[in-house]
Amino acid sequence: MTSHSHRAHSGNGQAQREEHSDSRGHVHVTRTEMAHEHAHRHVEEDMLSVEEAYQRVVSSFSPLDTETVPLVDSLGLVLAQDVHSPLDLPPLANSAMDGYAVRGGDISDTDPRSPRKLDVIGLIAAGQVSSQQVTSGTAIRIMTGAPIPSGADTVVPFEETDEVQRRNAGQTLDEIGILANLPLGSNVRPSGEDVISGELVLTAGTPIRAAEVGVLASLGLDVVAVRRRPVVAILATGDELSPAGTPLAPGKIYDSNSFSVAASVMACGGSPRLLGVARDNLEDLQAKLEKISGADLVITSAGVSKGDYDIVKDVLTQRGEMNFWSVRMRPAKPLAFGHLKGDEGPGTPLLGLPGNPVSAMVAFEMFARPAIRTMLGYRRLSRPKVEGILTGPIFNYDGRRVYARVEVAHKDGTYHASPAGPQGSNILTSMSRANGLAICPEDLPKKDTGETVEIIMLDWNEEVEV
Ligand code: AMP
Ligand code: MG
Questions:
Q1: In this structure, which CATH number among 3.30.830.10, 3.50.50.60, 3.20.20.30, 2.170.190.11 belongs to the domain 94-189?
Q2: Superfamily grouping for domain 2-64+229-376
Q3: Ligand 1 site, residue 352, Cβ cutoff 6 A
Q4: Residues spanned by CATH 2.170.190.11 within the chain?
Q5: Which of 234, 237, 239, 241 to mutate to test the pocket of ligand 1 (most atoms within 8 A of CB)?
Q6: What is the DSSP pairing of strand 241-242 with strand 253-254?
């Protein structure tokens, strides 16, 4: 154990130095003079900007291969192929109302005071095709969605006939009086009104929501070609972690990162695979990393901050090409990213999130979610942003970009962002209260009450009336 950590420590020192020179060559940060000075005073020079770290992570992902899935499983995935319609929608001209199918010419001079009388020669329910012909002076009773019979071109709704009076008078409906003079073609939905056969209905790259599921089903498709759902292996690291559902021994805490990350993966369309907890020793971490085959992305938590968890860094460096970064953001400064070498190919990408529960979730938001959405084939990778007014201050102690947990509410036409409680990176309940992350830029020491802030909307929480 002692010899391990000693060896690991010197190994880590090496990796750190390499990373320093590496990042110097690559970072291009645009800053104002003031921000530059501020940065000099407060931050380490090897920090990557959020944009640079984002670019480095996201650029190493691309959409996964195409797979055909049952339509019911396609929600949240992205179409991999253009969809052309195999049919007209609706397939046949049909009635938009319950009423009477007539010839428009028969009712063109109708007057409510002298209803036009037509012989009712039949009835068509939805799903039936009538072989009867509507000739001058006749009508066929027709239900919504039923195909228009030949000879008819107009549907008169029940309300525009004397049907109720006839029923009340105990008369049969073998004759009907038309009360209204409706324009020819009224209440007829022409075939192909929505879609014509061969038409491009949905393009590759379209995210599948409930409406797209409906459109595809209306074309008769029960399977759909999509970008495959990424499999994301999730590994927590730390000697202090206990699984939920077991008694908590002294000094231990429950592993929340595995679960918040798994839930975040599911929420953005990935398929999580929980690998459990790796202890802070070489053997266990090695063993847990054996189980990543088939994963498109590995997400670890903890062990990426400086001076701690040398073993995690050492193992990752040994097993692949790993970079350990400091990102100019709060929370979530430490971040690891690289590839674990497999037997062939470029290896499996690994994103090492920081251990603190809020840091892990914010780093997931900023880096893992866009990576997963890229693999899913989404073109838009980031959450919607709004501008809002702060109802309490956000402090920036050390020249990093601050992502403050806020409750966003919409009142009198304006978004209001209220800090959602203590902002320590271990305070997970304030993440739970928040529905947005309000940004205080790197070069400002504070965003004050009443000031306008940019807010990343995490969700449009219906409970807080956005
Ligand atoms: P580290 O990055 O390993 O220094 O961890 C930073 C903090 O995050 C420590 O307080 C850890 O106990 C905590 N932590 C690490 N992993 C987890 C986890 N899976 N769930 C909850 N807290 C964690
Ligand atoms: Mg720790």
A1: 2.170.190.11
A2: MoaB/Mog-like domain (3.40.980.10)
A3: no
A4: 94-189
A5: 241
A6: parallel
Please tell me the CATH superfamily of domain 66-87+196-227, with its number.
Answer: Molybdopterin biosynthesis moea protein, domain 2 (3.90.105.10)
What amino acid is encoded at 72 in this protein? V
CA 301 to ligand 1: nearest atom: 16
- SS3 (DSSP) at 76: coil
Alpha carbons 414 and 195: distance in angstroms, whole number: 40
| Mutation pick for ligand 1 pocket among 239, 301, 335, 431 (CB with most ligand atoms within 8 Å) | 301
Assign 217 to helix, strand or coil. helix
Q: Ligand 1 in contact with 242 (CB < 6 A)?
A: no
Q: State in Å: Cα 336 to ligand 1 middle.
A: 15
User: Could you read off the pLDDT of 103-113 as tens digits, one per residue?
Assistant: 999 999 898 88
Q: What is the DSSP letter of 150?
A: B
Q: Are 398 and 35 in contact (CB under 8 A)?
A: no
* Predicted TM-score of the model (pTM): 0.88
Q: Which residues have a Cβ under 8 Å from the Cβ of 229 and sit 6 or more positions away?
A: 64, 77, 269, 270, 271, 376
Q: What is the pLDDT of residues 206-218, one digit of tens each?
A: 999 999 999 999 9
pLDDT in tens, 67-85: 999 999 999 999 999 999 9
Q: Provide CATH 3.90.105.10 ranges for the chain.
A: 66-87+196-227
Ligand 1 mean position to 120 CA, how many Å?
Answer: 78
Q: Kindly identify the ligand whose nearest atom is closest to the C-alpha of 312.
A: 1
**Residues 238-282: pLDDT tens digits?**
999 999 999 999 999 999 999 999 999 999 999 999 999 999 988
Q: What is the CATH number of domain 385-464?
A: 2.40.340.10
Q: Whose CA is nearest to atom 6 of ligand 1?
A: 355
